[in-house]
Specification:
By secondary structure, the protein is an all-alpha fold. The chain has helices at residues 17-35, 41-61. It has two helices and no strands.
Length: 62
């Protein structure tokens, strides 16, 4: 069984349906796994510092 029809235009219909489904499932799984990970501490620290800086600027303008 050939995965590709021999054409090189990159069309989805050139990929076997089972392979296309597997690619879709793997991409969804990767996205779900990635979005459920917690942010690194260094990034959360940076976000907190930016929030504090923003709050200080807003307090100074009032």
């Amino acid at each position: 069984m050939s995965i590709m029809s021999g054409k090189r235009n990159g069309s989805k219909k050139d990929i076997a349906p089972a392979v296309s489904r597997q690619i879709d499932e793997n991409l969804k799984r990767l996205y779900t796994d990635t979005t459920s990970e917690e942010l690194p501490k260094s990034l959360t620290d940076l976000l907190e510092a930016l929030r504090q800086q923003d709050a200080q600027k807003k307090a100074g303008k009032q």
